[in-house]
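User: Batch of two.

Assistant: Item 1 of 2:
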Amino acid sequence: RFSFPKQILRINQSRAGSTGFYARSHHRHTVVLSQVWSLKLEQEVEKNKALTEALQILASEQQELKESIRSSRRSSAPRTLTEEDFYDALSDSESELSVSDFLSIASQSFEEDEGRDSPLLCHPSALRAPSRMSGEGNHGNQPTQRTGDEKHRTCLPAPMFSRNDVSIWSILKKCIGMELSKIAMPVIFNEPLSFLQRLSEYMEHTHLIHRANTTTDSIERMKCVAAFAVSAVASQWERTGKPFNPLLGETFELIKEDLGFRWVSEQVSHHPPVSAFQAEGLKEDFVFHGSIYPKLKFWGKSIEAEPRGVITLELPKYNEAYTWTNPTCCVHNIIVGQLWIEQYGNVEVLNHKTGDRCNITFKPCGLFGKELHKVEGYILDKSKQKLCAIYGKWTECLYTIDAATFDAHKRTDKKSSEDRKTNKRNSVDEEPEEMPPPDAETVQVIPGSELIWKITPRPENSAKFYAFSTFAMQLNALEKSMEGVIPPTDSRLRPDIRALENGDIDVASAEKKRLEEKQRMARKHRSKSTEEWKTRWFHQGPNPHNKAQDWLYLKGYWDRNFTHLPDIY
């Protein structure tokens, strides 16, 4: 009979005991690690919450401290008052500025997942005349279909809601680390227009294009085109409502006989959001087209919209084409303080035939708000010689003058500014985004200057109706004569925009969510069936003048064959 030695049995027993010990130790170690990570996660959550609250408190205290210092300076330092000490009172719409407006500029991607509300530019011009529809080749004096009454509306069905009780920060602080395109804003921050409709406000100053066509001097034409490019962003001023982002396939048309143009636009892409448009002179005297894709950046206390896309104006009479891009738009004080907007950056308007160009600088506000809204630049020939200067404010007017006179004035003005700064060395430095700057209503006109553009004041009831101009008041009007004429994808037929215009914010919010879900489901269906979305009125391709990526009009819209259009509403 065979038996294991006692020594071997003891070794095996010892090994078995060790294995059990190691297993128990490993289990305890795993439990401890799990508890440690859970604790760390809780700590990070608490830390993030504390930092968020601290940031808001710090911004509030900093704002209060600056106001206190400015107040004490005013009360303890009596001196002779000058014209610079007086500024116009802020309007109601300025005091209610919301981050949503900014994206009127800009900002079409400032929404959650599908068909969000969007944003961009243009301003007041009380322009009145009947709108009409016509065929693709129907221009000039040929008969057209009337789509509206001769008397246009001068107000909206209901005034806007107050946004004073809604905190932008309460929304944004929950979105730290998220893409801006994923942030959904409440419908109360919208204005009752689609981004496609907002884009059409470019055409409010079409008289500048017609003026360019009447002169045989290429430099005079450049002045008019440059003024048109500046006037196109004027609607940023005081426009607090964020336009609804167009749904994929949404369209908008507009015909203005008094201004001599017809316009068609389409939302050609949703991710990224891209809107394409084309306007034509009714006498075939110009073509204005482009595509807009705003890129958003969140800087903590401000949001910046960098415009992407090419804008092109063609004047067939002179075989000329001009191209440019819009300046950058920024909204300040999104956490605390009064929200305010500025445009800044360089814009180059290039004449591709002559080589002439107009380099325009939209000046940033600066420390004391002196440069707010100012624009200045030069028209140069193809050898980069200065031909004349342009200056003014994008919110008000634009002048032109001889380049040498302008340079001499700038040198004198710079010396005066340095003298004033010497007298202000004891004042407290202030960051521009924390101080709502003064908004002087006038431009210092240099003797010998020529006025080339001046903005038309908004109507008296503008503040009650989203700071709309008379032109904007008419964009969403839906007359009975339009039934069966405009396509079913037209922005005027969107139920969420219509509900907001009528003052029913609950219906507007519900319809907005319904449309977003409908678009989301349509996209999922296309992905499962390998079906690709096809645009109807525009196609992607190189710009014919600078070869940049662009969306070009396919023609055919004005033939009014609207069969097989998608059901997006």
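Item 2 of 2:
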Amino acid sequence: MSDIYESAANSLGLFSGPYLTKVELQLSCKGIPDRDSLCKPDPCLVLAMQSCGQWMEVDRTEVIPSCGNPNFSKVFTLDFYFEERQRLRFELLDIYSGGLNGMKHEAFLGFVECNLGQIISQRKLSKALLKPGGTVGKSIITIAAEELTGNDDHIELSFSARKLDDKDFFTKSDPFLEIYRLNEDATMQLVYRTETVKNNLNPVWKRFKVSLNSLCAGDHERKLQVQWLCINSKYKAKKKNYKNSGIVILNRCKVIKMHSFLDYIMGGCQIQFTVAIDFTASNGDPRNSCSLHYIHPFQPNEYLKALVAIGEICQDYDSDKMFPAFGFGAQVPPDYKISHDFAVNFNEENPECVGIQGVVEAYQACLPKLQLYGPTNIAPIIQKVACSASQEVHTKEAMQYFILLILTDGVITDMADTREAIVQASHLPMSIIIVGIGNADFSDMQMLDGGEGILCSTRGEPVLRDIVQFVPFRNFKNASPAALAKSVLAEVPNQVVEYYNNKGIKPKMPSVYQSSKQFGL
């Protein structure tokens, strides 16, 4: 395998190790020296990872003003591969504004290098920062690791406060709020810091969302600490009748359940797979061995390779294994009128085929009976499947999600109508996969899957969701069929979840699921 192909394959996620999980790293530092006799540092931690022998920055924390012992709320989320040695480098910077022009400066204070496996095996790793030049400094960095549970739920919070103390005799306070979680070792971890409300003793902070993984590691029973009564120890010592310096109020706390793709599939949602095949004359005469539709006795053509590779994945999520198959761009018997949405089995009342093999057989059987023609119009077939998907909308249940696979050898000729059809379909439980067959110039097709920005209809209406994935088959000629399937199907789970979550439709419980399937024409 060439290095170029291996690199491309890895970027597509074609190769994965036997074990993969995500871990979250929480960071803090102690003993950072002052910038000078008047100023404390404004620290920030940078995470770098090795790539081709070079350190590359991948993320950084927030900057905490005037703090020598920072506890960063920003966390780093990393994939953990047991079989790899994952080198990490943490660099401590002091980021501040200075000079007459107020330009920002970054002062390098030190670094630590370690393996991700070291952090995970110890759960919490503390090391002295190495100063520039490699000498050991007095500053300590602590890195705590926690495996994520896979819970994508978020909690929405809103806080306000009343009657806070003035900063001093002349100035009102600039309040902000911090939320901590209680770790298993009884230490406190900062998970969120609100914005600062300037010059206000009765602040109302902006509503915000925090993932339950960050807030409590997905453990709904883990305690949180919010400082409800604001106590100023100096005032308490001086004032005999001192009670508090203000009250913090939790105005809103709402758990937002984020259901997963498997929640819907295991709840009974069926993937309704439909295929549409290009029968325009540009494919060449099927009887000629140079034709894209030529049926070789031992070697399947590109149409069949793409159909089988993708169809065999999708059929696992459809209980009755009945798949509608359509053609477009041909003159169809018996009157040989041009059609852009005819049933490949020539049964317009029931276009379904039994299994993916049934689709293959119907495709091979129809070729001698068709007159390949044109043009390449795909809007009619998108509208046909969208009509079936629209019936699912009325059920307000997550029972059927539609995937339309379009196999075409050329640039479509009804681009305006296709854009309109896709925009309308983006409101429905539906995804569209387009595979370009042959060696045509497919550059215009990138527009349909958002490669040139958000797709809009000719009226200027944007898609509600990104539902189109386009790939040229030639990119996978030397790869396995699984490579093509993984590439085009990778986005489907997120598209399914996005549709149902946006609609507020929850997955059904498996115990109450009853199989149902219909294809409306």
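The mean pLDDT is 84.
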